[in-house]
Amino acid sequence: MEELTVLIKLKTEEQFTVPIKLLISNSPVFKHLFVDLKFDEHEIDDFSPGSVKHFLTVLENKSLGDIEDKMFRELHKLGTAFEVDWLKKSCRDWLKKKMETASSKEDKIYLFEECWFIADKLKDEDAMNDLVSVLAHKNNSLLLSHYLSDMSKVKEAQIDVLLKLAGRDVELFLNIVRQNLRGQKTLDSKLRYILDNMNLAACSEINEELYLEVMDTVSELPEISANDLKWAYKLITNTARAVRSRKKDKIERTTELYETRKYLGLFKNCRTVTDITKAVSEDRVTSMFVVIDLLLELLFSHTSTKEELQFFIKTLTEACVDKQIQKVSRQYLHTIISGLRYSNPEQSKPLITLLTEIDKSEEMCTYNENVTIKLHELITITKYKEYKHLYIFKHPLSVACTKSDSKCGFILKGSIQEDNTTYKLCTDEDEYKDTGIHLHDAISARDMYRYTTFTGTCEGKQITVAGRRWWEDWLPHITDWKCTGGYVVYNVSDYLVAKR
Question: Per-residue DSSP letters for 436-475?
């Protein structure tokens, strides 16, 4: 039997026949054109002939393969236009791998342009969020200077992303603003936008001299408008108030990180999703990581209606905004969701749906507001009873540290008793003697969440889980769990360049 074919025409008037089966098996759009509407030809004139030919070859091979940078955008657009889901995913995976290896200015500019195109033209911000997640903790000074050296060419929405990509490097952004102010007579609207959306309280705390120089320069512009001058004075005043408020909040350093009895008491008191929201509102829960712990415990043995869970998301979002609690890292949340997919589908489906909704929320979830710190060293004080957990971490307020005989960081002391385990931040200098680590006053347990990762085998695949042993209930069929790491997630949202 002769194979059915259709005619594909290119904008160069070149045309060729393609097996209809190849097209409709990959694309519901082609299926609609050639099966439902019974067309026998289709013109693809929005793309270059080379990219269309490459697209058809990719469909035939059922694999993206190795592609050049210049081919990514066209293939991704074709995959999107014709709804070839596996190709869109392959393109995104290719882009994500490129993000993870990007180190040069050229690579980062390429990635920013591609992610911006996807966000701006295809109305999909996932790729840009991935870029922020991967690059925000790296040195992006050359990338930022490239876009911000000429403010006339950058859009405000791009500035929002660049502020996030600056991570905690407030001095870099202040210097960029200072350079853009040189020789100016009036205040450029883009510079005003940047200062309005910068975390100036953190700028003042980390480098007060540079912050004051920038604000003095703004206030003394020779032809600054009365409106801009009024705005500048208000901004300085609001920043001073914010700094004063932040200092007041940080006077009381907390040292207690975790205690089994208190955690079990929290679980006991949170028997409905409404109880969890109430605990957040009453400051008994100050981290979305703990909210996730509570949901994993609660929804294993209790069921909630779809309406209850929808109302929970709404009220929890409001509580998170009001209380400014620590957001959960998306990377961490994705690990939990991936692990739950190997559990009983009937039981885990409502929880996966709920966690996916949390993942979509900028009020509850983040790519860049937490720093994940891996355990550096474990020191045994008394076997099976007491340990020191050493972590290397440079707090944003300790950037000017000049100590050379040890590294910035902190120690958590774990104490294990019969029915209670505690973790506390060590603040006594003697505890740090001969450890190679020193502590700064800014470090506080209230900004931390501690968890472990484990790997196990299911259906011949190795899966990774993270958290506090929820997998023992949800994944009882996996019995070969091995601990692969201990981590502390530290909330640095107060010190990011971008205003929260």
Answer: TEE--TT--GGGEEEEEEEEEEETTEEEEEEESSTHHHH-
